[in-house]
Protein 1
Amino acid sequence: MLAGDLYIADDPDLAAASKRAILLAHRYGEVYATDPDAARPILEELIGSIAPDAHIRPPLYVDYGAHITIGPGTFANYGLTALDVAPITIGADVQIGPNVQLLTPTHPVDPDMRRAKLEAAEPIVIGDNVWLGGGVIVLAGVTIGENSVIGAGAVVTRDIPAGVVAVGNPAKVIRHI
Ligand SMILES: CC(=O)SCCNC(=O)CCNC(=O)[C@H](O)C(C)(C)COP(=O)(O)OP(=O)(O)OC[C@H]1O[C@@H](n2cnc3c(N)ncnc32)[C@H](O)[C@@H]1OP(=O)(O)O
């Protein structure tokens, strides 16, 4: 699953891990509403690796949480969806706008394979000091280079180099910084 091979998502261990993640993410949001400090251990239990000063505003939606790494100084605004069937690596000092989606899973385009419930997933890497504007969607297998800015609403289908501004659907580089 983590290696990008096709698989059928009916494994009971995966279902249990997903249920655990749903419960922890829900609890994180509930506790955060009245006491963000008390909510912190719940976030640390949910996320595979998160720097002590990284901050995520709930609601947060993940598949498993365990395959997510978040570096120091990173901030994610409300409504991050991080589907971590494959690893999601978020660097240091990353700014994530509201309702961003990081989508590592894919389904086959072939209709028969899709009906057979085959799935796959590819890792996503967000480099240091990247800013993802509100509503950005990053697709499976994409790497965004450090210091780059992705404009609000962009759909990132291909790798983005370091030090650029990219906007639109599909996201295209409009200038170097
Ligand atoms: C962590 C947080 O919570 S962040 C809070 C949420 N805030 C946001 O999501 C804001 C995100 N910001 C943006 O999308 C901004 O538009 C930026 C950062 C991309 C602007 O970057 P700049 O390089 O300054 O671009 P600039 O404003 O000069 O626009 C350049 C061109 O791109 C277009 N453009 C700018 N942003 C976008 C966008 N999101 N989608 C499509 N086109 C865009 C402009 O219309 C302009 O086009 P034109 O030349 O035809 O007039």
Protein 2
Amino acid sequence: MLQTPYYLIDKTALQRNLEIIDYVRKNSGAKLLLALKCFATWSVFDSMKPYMDGTTSSSLYEVKLGYQKFGGETHAYSVAFADHEIDEVLANSDKIIFNSISQLERFEARAGNKPKGLRLNPGISSSSFDLADPARQFSRLGEGNPERILAIIDRLDGVMIHNNCENADFARFDELLAQVEARYSAILHQLKWVSLGGGISFTKPGYELDKFCQRLRQFAQTYGVQVYLEPGEATVRYTTTLEVSVLDTAFNGKHLAIVDSSTEAHMLDLLIYRETAPIGNETGEHRYQICGKTCLAGDIFGEGNFDAPLQVGDRLSIGDAGGYTMVKKNWFNGVNMPAIAIKEVDGSIRAVREFGYDDYVNSLS
Ligand SMILES: Cc1ncc(COP(=O)(O)O)c(C=O)c1O
Ligand SMILES: NCCCCNCC[C@H](N)C(=O)O
């Protein structure tokens, strides 16, 4: 048995999401690119490649990883490219998307004939988190003024609009897109491609997939553009668990179980968005708060019900640990990083990466 903690990617669950992705691309005509900022565990890229068209990125390292390990079509985007990295970004990408007109002007000559895009910020979004809201006040994410974009439209091939966030409501997506069309149609008519970004929860059970596909197809036909989507979370939602062991138990008004992992180090989004992870089952009679092992008082994964009192050595699964986890893990408190393991469709489990003291030492100097 593998030593905990480890992230466990279930290929059967991943396959389910990938088949939905494939359905969307076949029925909408859109191309779907994996957003590496969410999930970049390249050991499973071979399983993903047949269902996705490539990757999109937010930095030089992501664009290189996508180009080298995933292939297909590689989009380069960054909130700001640096002079010393732009040539390598260009060498490892098929399209470059600038966040601002000033970045376009700075680098367009070096980009030569490479297809160029601009991030368009329509100033409206589906985000309920200010932290992840591209339309927040004073946002630096993209250009919103149609006149300023029209003034440079002949230098653009496309735009990227990322303004959804965990949006599981097709009607809301449709409404936001209609508002984008109303304000920016003169721009959209002059482009070859439009990326509608990520943040659309179309792999969630119950999502109105056929309406979604139809809407994307209609959008593409209206403007004569190739549509792209950039799913991160939708690609890996409910595919991965964080497998942990109980190290200690206590009662402090609530039953507590301390495990060999940490929210801050291994599932950081739980802290920054103040959410809790799916833990335990619906029916168990023994309720526990599952706590991380760092010194941070609020290092808590959440609460869950269990069939029996938890004991030291018990193994637990913390749910939905695929997106924004492995890419964000860190060495806080010197807690060992979870290994990364894959559960094959035949049920066998193999570790594809393990970490140790040397990795900790080498991350510092
Ligand atoms: C430009 C862009 N594309 C795609 C994504 C992926 O979003 P999600 O993981 O919510 O699908 C993000 C998230 O930051 C993004 O900023
Ligand atoms: N589960 C809490 C919200 C997660 C938001 N993820 C989206 C992050 C992405 N970087 C974005 O800003 O859109």
